[in-house]
Design brief:
Radius of gyration: 18 Å
Mean pLDDT: 81
Strand content: under 5%
Distance between the termini: 43 Å
Number of strands: 0
Largest sheet: none
Number of helices: 2
Length: 81
């Protein structure tokens, strides 16, 4: 069994951070929206989770940019129209 390459690890990290970040932002938004109609719902952790999700998504984009700068998998050109 061979170990994954550094490029593969960066791609995995990018994908994982993007997925977790989007899920966290979605959770934060949904809880905050529901809390507007139900004041008894606690939003103690919703806003911090929303912010953490945004940070994770930004870090994911930074990893993606780093991957591209280091010569990672290039995006194939679009087919001619």
């Amino acid at each position: 069994m061979t170990l994954p390459t550094l490029t593969t690890m960066r791609n995995w990290a990018h994908s994982l951070l993007a997925i977790v970040g989007v899920i966290a932002m979605g959770y934060g938004v949904v809880v905050n929206v529901i809390a507007t109609s139900d004041p008894s719902l606690s939003t103690k952790y919703a806003t911090p989770i929303l912010l953490i999700g945004g940070i994770l998504t930004a870090v994911s984009k930074a990893i993606d940019s780093l991957n591209n700068a280091l010569g990672g998998t290039p995006t194939p050109p679009a087919p001619p129209a």
